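PT: before anyone asks, these are the final sequences, not the draft ones from last week. 284 residues across everything. Please model them as a single complex and drop the result in this thread when it's through.
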Amino acid sequence: MLTGWTDLEHTFRTFDRLQRRLDRAFFDWSDPALVRVRRAPRLAWPATNVFETPEAFVVKADVPGLGEGDVAVSVEEDSLVVRGERKVDAPAGYQAHLRERAPVAFTRKLPLPARVDAERVTATLTNGVLTVTLPKSKDALPRQIAVKAV
Amino acid sequence: MSDATPVSTAKNGTVPARHYQRRAVAPPVDVFENADELLIVADVPGVSNDGIDLRVENDTLTLEARRAAVEKAPPALLREYDETDFSATFRIPAGIDTGAISAETRKGTLVVRLPKAAAAKSRTIVVRSGNRGD
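LR: through. Structure below.
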């Protein structure tokens, strides 16, 4: 039921992958000028883990550099949506020698495998890790059925 | 770091399983420079202040950042990343005052400041006119 995150920012990622494969296949003999534009592989950001406890789903994501105002979490119908933006501007007056931390704007959508109690969802940021706890709705919790002999 | 587990060797020369070092990856890093200092910014999500071990030896800066240990994690429905530790080594260029290196963490990033030694800062030399009165 859980199909994983939909990556709304990169809907055509599959095509990107296909294109890279084709680029690689033709790289040996084609005009180098045609294949010079090769995009670096992009991974969905932020990388996310989802855990399930008996009472809740716990979503964890590494979002270093993001503060309270930079990330928005919402529960929309049957999905959890996390939006945000990480700006990594060079400090004023500094010259950059190496830039590995990329700026990124993201929207990720997680279809929830069971009903959750939207009122009790909590989200925290600790040391650059976003943790969203989604307690399961009462309807989704297992119910013991008494078996009667007749 | 004081609470790092020392890797001890058992009698037969093997390392006991529980002492295997945890996997560590190099964090993404930005390096900036201005007239007064070098600035290293590294993404180390999940690492608190206590988890960071920063050492200077000769001209080498070694960073080790350990994530807080996770108590038994519940079953995962989706796993896109492992909670790895971070480690990186930097060569400190000449002209850095290694005694004055400082570091702070904020929002899962580590900022290391490496101030330049006074002798290495650029100075403007006042040029005087030499043909005085002649």
